Amino acid sequence: MVIQPLILLASLFVIIVAASLLSVALYVTGSYLIYAYDRRLARSGHLHPPHDELGELPKGWDRARGLLLEIYATYAIVALFPFGKIGYRSIQKAAKGRGCRPILLIHGYNLNRSCWAKFRRALKEAGLGPIYTLNLPRRSGGLPGLACAIKEEAERIERETGVKELILIGHSMGGLVSAFYAERLATAGSVSHVITLGSPLHGTRSAVFTSCIIGRQMHVGSDFVKDLSHSIMINRKVRYHHVASQFDNIILPFQSALIGRDLDCELLLSDIGHNSLLFSPRVTSQVVEWLKRSAPAMQQEGRSRALPCALSPTPSQNAK
Q: DSSP strand E in the chain: where?
């Protein structure tokens, strides 16, 4: 008699998992249909950028693999989402005796801090940190309101660590919010790096599907992204790094995720989707390299007093 309820529960669990997986697959496939249609319009000359600037799509198996990875990444985010609702912030301390540059990870639209699970682990294994995450408020009055939440968290981190300079890493919308905080709200010298992963720095055409104020601010050509991207371009006090992918199914066009100021501070991939950026070893490796490479430069600039435990370059970086 006890077995029947267990069988029913197991069957219900399987149905829920299968339904959620199917929903994710349909969502990702639909987003790539929009992506393909957007490229077709660009090829016909109806959209900017023109066809010769679109880049080549991955071929054959690489394209299929990119689609499957995006489904996996999106499903992982959905599965992790409930765990991110437990508390609004988390701290992952650096390995003992290593690292003392606080890092704050900022999630994207309609996500929460749980999406950083794999990325955060990779940063910790590299000896970076302490690493902080938080859930942005649902009701904010737009991207500047979300940046105010970052300001409060940054002040809290400074009190906890005693270190003024903060590293911000943002995915998608989180990159825009991070950049706005660094440009408009942060005090001088309080942000050393802003790293964006698939962020619509010049807007995205997919924002047309979001009717709220945040969607309007992220639309291509909005006053918000125009002013912010211009500020990023001329700011020489904050180190900006950007990651983009030609196969990004959300940032349309993909060039919107790049500023183009310094090619050494940008990574352009060709075969992974928007959410896959959070799980890609290539992305985490590049971010770790950027952060470790910058530590000696910051000391040379006389800023090491704010970073008493700045990381030393690895032997491979010394060789370069």
A: 89-92, 103-106, 131-134, 166-171, 191-197, 239-245, 266-269
Q: How many CB atoms lie within 10 A of CB 163?
A: 18
> Partners of 90 in the beta sheet?
133
Residue 310 has pLDDT above 50, yes or no: no
**If you compute the radius of gyration of the chain from its CA atoms, what whole number of angstroms results?**
20
213-268 per-position pLDDT tens digit:
999 999 999 999 999 999 999 998 999 999 999 999 999 999 999 998 788 899 99
Burial of 258 per CB tally in 10 Å (0-12, 13-18, 19+): buried
Can you say whether the dihedral through the CA atoms of 77, 80, 81, 85 is positive or negative? negative
Q: Residue 91's pLDDT is what?
A: 72
List the structure tokens of 130. 């302490």
Domains and CATH numbers, the chain: 3-81 (no CATH), 84-300 (3.40.50.1820)
Mean pLDDT of the chain: 86
